[in-house]
Each structure stands twice: as C-alpha cells, then as structure tokens.
Amino acid sequence: MSAVIRHPTELGGTPNVLKIIQTFLLHCVVVYVSLLIVKQEAAIGKRDRLVPRLPDAGEVLRGSLLHRIIRHRTGCPKCDRGEGHPVAVLAVGYPGGRTRQISLRKEQVAHVRRCLANYQKLKSAIEEICEMNQLLLRADPDEKEEEGRRGK
Questions:
Q1: What is the mean pLDDT of residues 123-150?
Q2: For 57-84, what is each residue's pLDDT tens digit?
Q3: Average pLDDT of 8-26?
Q4: For residue 62, how far is the Cα from the chain centroid?
Q5: Which member of 1, 42, 84, 86 has the lowest number of beta carbons within 10 Å of its beta carbon?
Q6: What pLDDT, on the 0 to 100 scale, is given for residue 72?
Q7: DSSP class of residue 57?
Q8: Are 61 and 119 in contact (CB under 8 A)?
Q9: C-alpha 95: how far from its chain's center?
Q10: pLDDT at 16 over 90
Q11: Which of 140, 136, 132 is nearest to 32 (CA)?
Q12: Per-residue pLDDT at 132
C-alpha cells in the first residue's frame, strides 16, 4: 500500500491550509532540532562536570582488601590459645582464575582502602563518560557524516 501525497489545493483546500501545514511542519522540525541540541549540550555538560571529579589515576588499586587470621603450627602461645594473628591482605584477581595476594603492614591499610575507593570512583566515572559519549554519537549523526565528507 503506497500513500499518495496530494497538494492541499487539489483536495479542495485553500492556500491558507498549505501555509498552516508548512508552519506546523517547520515548527516540528525546529522543536526536534532544539531538543537534539539541548540533549547534546546536556550530555556534554554532564561529561565535562565528571572529568574534574576524577580521582588521581596514580592513586588507584584494583582488588579486594581482606582481613585474615594466620596461625602458627607450633611454638606460639597466642596461636595455641586459638587467637592467631590478624593480617590485612590485598587480593587481586587475574584472567585464568589466578589470584595474587599481597600482605600489608598495618600502616598501609588506610592507604590501600583509599586507593581501592579511588579505583571504584574512577571506574564508575569512566562508565558515565562513555555513556555520555555514546549519547553524543547518536545525538547528531548528520554532523559526523558531513565532517567525514569534508575530510575527503
């Protein structure tokens, strides 16, 4: 089924009807373009606000902070009583199911906690920035095509 678009004057309409339709369509285009621009500006604004809040990339660690109790087999009165020795460990998982565990001194634990928190903040901020960049890719496809044509 194909629709045939006829001129309003052929349908018994007047030139005023044509003007009303043209005005309506022009208004729709203006609103659509305005919404695209606002959406694009909002995405750029959100992305630009995220960037300064990123933590220092030099202060990040990936992994998990674990608290363990180690026990000596013989000769330690504390272990003989069942108390053991509390130890903090940074556990980092690698592909293939391998895990590296790094024993930490007590004074390192606070720094490792901060670095792990920075990693999570950095990771979530990067995800949000990627989402904004994807929105920008979809927001104005014609502009990207024109840039590609100009470059050729």
A1: 70
A2: 788 899 999 999 888 888 888 888 888 8
A3: 63
A4: 18
A5: 1
A6: 85
A7: G
A8: yes
A9: 23
A10: no
A11: 140
A12: 79
Question: 59 Cβ partners below 8 Å, 6+ apart?
Answer: 114, 115, 118
Pairwise CA distance, residues 146 & 128, whole Å:
27
Closest to 46 (Cα-Cα) out of 118, 133, 117, 120:
133
Q: At 110, phi and psi to the nearest 5?
A: -60, -45
Instruction: Name the one residue in this structure whose structure tokens are 């203006």.
Output: 30
What CA–CA distance (Å, rounded) separates 102 from 91? 6
Q: H or E element: which one contains 20?
A: helix 15-50
Q: What is the pLDDT of residues 83-93, one digit of tens each?
A: 889 999 999 99
For residue 130 the two structure tokens come to 């990627």
Inter-residue contact 48 to 110 (CB < 8 Å) = no
- 127: which 2 tokens? 């995800």
pLDDT at position 111: 94
| Contact residues for 55 (Cβ-Cβ < 8 A; gap 6+) | 118, 121, 122
Looking at residue 89, its amino acid is V
